[in-house]
Amino acid sequence: MQLSRQGDYAIRAMIDLAQHHDKGPIHTEDIAKRQDIPKMYLSKIIQALAKTGLIRTVRGNKGGIFLNKKPAKITLFEVIEAVEGQIALNECLRYQGACSRQAICDVYPAWVKIQEAFKAELSKHTIGKFAKQNGKDTNEAA
């Protein structure tokens, strides 16, 4: 499995938002410029992040993008699933019964454990951990 460009851009955008979360609304253009993300591509990512409630957007002159939670409460797992959809290391893990061999497959229990460990590890890491603000970890500052 490899993180898509969309997932990478979403993480970079969220870290940027975390770095500037105490400065009011952030404009898409500013994030795009600082993070070297094409503006049109970023707009689609912003929509996905807003749809899942990780961020909120406000239109108008005083509008922009805001984090909906403190950076220390937003995990990599949440960001990735917001733009990539459900994480499944193998098709058989998407939902119960996705594979007709699930009940007899010797590898299935291993896939389940590996996926659970992967999700748990992604959930340990927060956007705040990666967003340095005034030389401090935003897990402390938020």
Q: Short summary of the structure?
A:
The chain has helices at 5-19, 28-35, 39-51, 76-84, 108-124, 127-130, 138-141, and strands spanning 55-58, 64-67, 132-133, 136-137. The protein is mainly alpha-helical and 142 residues long.
Describe this structure as you would to a colleague:
- The chain has 142 residues and is mainly α.
- It has a domain at 5-87 and 126-134: Arc Repressor Mutant, subunit A, CATH 1.10.10.
- It is built from seven helices and four strands.
- It has helices spanning 5-19, 28-35, 39-51, 76-84, 108-124, 127-130, 138-141, and strands at 55-58, 64-67, 132-133, 136-137.
- It has a two-stranded antiparallel ribbon. Strands 3-4 form a two-stranded antiparallel ribbon.
- The model has no long low-confidence stretch (mean pLDDT 89).
What sequence of helices (H) and strands (E) makes up the elements?
HHHEEHHHEEH
Summarize the amount of helix as a percent range: 40-55%
Give the neighbour order of strands across the main sheet.
1-2
CATH superfamily annotation of the domain at 5-87 and 126-134: Winged helix-like DNA-binding domain superfamily/Winged helix DNA-binding domain
What's the β-strand tally? 4
Keywords for this structure?
two-stranded antiparallel ribbon, 142 residues, 49% helix, single chain, mainly alpha, 4 strands, Arc Repressor Mutant, subunit A
